[in-house]
Design goal:
The protein has 110 residues and is α/β, with parallel strands linked by helices. Helices cover 36% and strands 32% of the residues. Helix 1 (29-42) runs parallel beside helix 2 (59-74). The longest helix is centred in the middle third of the chain and has 16 residues, at 59-74. The chain is globular. It starts with a strand and ends in a 7-residue tail after the last strand.
């Protein structure tokens, strides 16, 4: 496990999963963009971005994820978003970026 990050957002690489925690906003997009680029360039498989522990997100950050999804698709790979809470989902719908990203399916409750 390789950890990088600043004081506002922690970015942890766990295989082909990128786990984010903290505030994912315009100030942290450079770090996330670089981490995604490294994961997509270094693996011949799909990448998961886990947003479960993200406390705040803005539309600029979500655009970075949408662009990464687009670029991965061009190379025949997928970027899947995991752990999108209600606030993230609302912003994805409001910004219409929901059409450009792939959300991990959640298991149905029994």
């Amino acid at each position: 496990m390789d950890t990088t990050g600043g004081t506002r957002l922690d970015v942890v690489h766990d295989g082909t999963t990128l786990v984010l925690s903290g505030d994912f906003d315009a100030q942290s997009t450079f770090e996330v963009r670089n981490a995604l680029h490294l994961l997509l360039a270094g693996h011949e498989q799909d990448v998961v971005v886990d947003l479960t522990e993200v406390s705040r997100v803005d539309v600029i950050a979500l655009k970075v994820l949408a662009y990464a999804t687009h670029e991965a698709g061009r190379a025949g790979h997928h970027v899947t978003l995991r752990g999108c809470g209600p606030a993230v989902r609302r912003l994805l719908h409001k910004s219409r970026l929901i059409r450009l990203v792939e959300l991990e399916r959640e298991a149905a409750s029994a």
